[in-house]
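Example record used in the benchmark description.
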Amino acid sequence: MFSILKPFIFKIDPEMAHDLAIKSLKYNFLPEEIFKVENESILETKIFGQKIKNPIGLAAGFDKSAEVYNPLFKFGFGFIEVGTVTPKKQFGNPKPRVFRLENDHALINRLGFNNDGLEKVAKRLQKNSPTDFLGVNVGPNKDSKNKIDDYLKCIKEIYNYADYITINISSPNTPGLRDFHDKNSLHQLLKIVTEFTKKNKIQKPLMLKISPDLANSDIGNVIELLKKFNINGVIISNTTDKNRENLTGKFKSEFGGLSGEPLAKISNDLIKKFYKEIKGEITIIGVGGINSGMTAYEKLKSGASLLQLYTGMVYEGPGIVKKIKTELVDILEKEKIKNINDIVGTGS
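Model output (structure tokens):
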């Protein structure tokens, strides 16, 4: 059905199309059975000790305000991350702010953490318990005078409803946010956050979402601090505000974060560098350019034990998880691999 509707959808402004998708998902009319595949038990894995049906997750950015996570689980995702949630409601940057690069199978966005705010999101999560494993991605408001306090406010209000919490320091669309990649700034952030969670007896896994534009010289510093403060996982990576030279789409020069196929190799290379140093000690969630079984396979081989996608669903539609599962099962069976976990890091 999506292949029939796609030409019409792609004539609509991307953000309007996304809003229509959120509204339609609220009807929750698609049966989960149609997204299941044969022999998918081979894809079973664990996230922070809990078994999930597959390692394919939906990245933060699609369900920003936690409106449709339960209908989305029916598409076959092993886990979902909502957000980014900020303390106060935020409109984000001026429109237009999302651009399709169809020939590149990519998007550029400069949304700027638009969301309904912490209070509304917390009420939704309280009212509508997640049917599966759910992460919540948190960040500061654009005009915040104390970004670290914003993280703490979100964590305090949201942790009861989340299976894990992601500290987002990686969006290129919030001024000053990526400054937290600096060793001293990241040390201060993680020190304050972990002391806060300990003091308030918040025992939820913490993830750190990083930029793909991280300098090689900073990788060791980030890994050192992840270990020092016992951060449970790292999400590699968010969108890139660089790497435009090989793009062909007419919107390639738009300011914002680039996602989709052009990010695949960039994120894979970064995942490999992290995996060599942490090898299972810290969970890696790989993001960027996943739109097929093979692209998922390559990211797992690079060292990610879990995956997230977003742009791939824009181009492939809700059937993308079923497609990836089917192709992954086929690859694993041909390689005589008994479980998806056996390939993690084998290509790093």
